[in-house]
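Quick one: co-fold with iron/sulfur cluster.
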Amino acid sequence: MATDDARLAEIERKVESGERLSFEDGLALEESTDLIAIGAMANRVRERYNQNFAYYNVNMHINPTNVCVFTCDFCAFRADLDDPRGYVMDRDQIVDRARKANERGATELHIVGGLHHKLPFDYYVDVVRWIKADFPELHIKAYTAVEIEFFAKIARITIRETLERLIDAGLGSLPGGGAEIFHPEVRKEICGAKASTETWLEVHRTAHRLGLKSNATMLYGHIDKPKHRIDHLIRLRELQDETGGFQTFIPLAFHPDNSRMAEIHKPSGLMDLKVMAISRLMLDNFPHIKAYWVMLGIKTAQVALSFGADDIDGTVVHEKIYHEAGAETPQEVSVADIERLIREAGRTPIERDTLYHKVNRDGSTWRSGDHIDVRTIEPVAVG
Ligand code: SF4
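Sure, here it is.
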């Protein structure tokens, strides 16, 4: 790598030898303007972990309600109890959405929503149960750590009991939302009322101990500073050292429209790529880094596949949360489009299920194959 930056050269030495990067290394990466050098390092780590493959899945989002007791500054999705925009999906609507997902070949339902003032915990359990009764093969990735804590409070049970009841209903894994920024200087400003950093981490720790896999996110590009982002990544890395339960890290670019932070500009494409690359370099124990195209835009997500990302998410249908906040991406792209986007980026597409098994399709049916372990897959030539 050609860089005149002595600090980057030292970081490169560490990356090449597989040495863990420190908090100071993370700050040095944040302070550097040599995006190409940082991206090249992240790309090497990405290829070391995932060779030339880029993963996607076929999924559908369900947001059962947008009514929420909290008022996070960055949120354009929520509605008050008496807001005419507020809604709660009933059983027929939920099952109908699952049926559509099933007909379109989805392998996963991604379910997150607001924390309704009046709905009981049983409603959220039933959402999972209703779907599994009719579509047992669909993997349900549902409820952020913030929702899990809320359910525990309204049901007056522990986090462990909450997760056990959801697992019993058919919950398959946890999404990574609600992490925002862990550092208290930021968290108390943008979402001080909802689950604390310690609680978010404890929910995931408990989920991992119960055998669930989960993802993790970071909402960047608002009032966060480099030290907050590096602190966030290191806290995740420490929990992953402890449990090994995280699959994928997803940096989420802040979308200001219709939120209470609408005066803040959304992050630039350069920042998106830099955060992606730094995440890949700092999270040395996370197998996957995702470029969530719904938030990044398709073009930036494509480039991100050379800046540390190895996953591009799915053919997302009925996603409300980021589109309410101004995401201008389409609601879905077809499998053919997503594979073309990945091939254009010089990568080899692999359809995965939620738990990173290769999906094999035969006409309108599908089944999950072996777990994707890049060490056992023969490298495929670029191009
Ligand atoms: S981000 Fe989640 S918890 Fe916060 S206001 Fe929006 S829906 Fe509610």
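If it helps, The CA atoms of residues 154 and 281 lie 39 Å apart.
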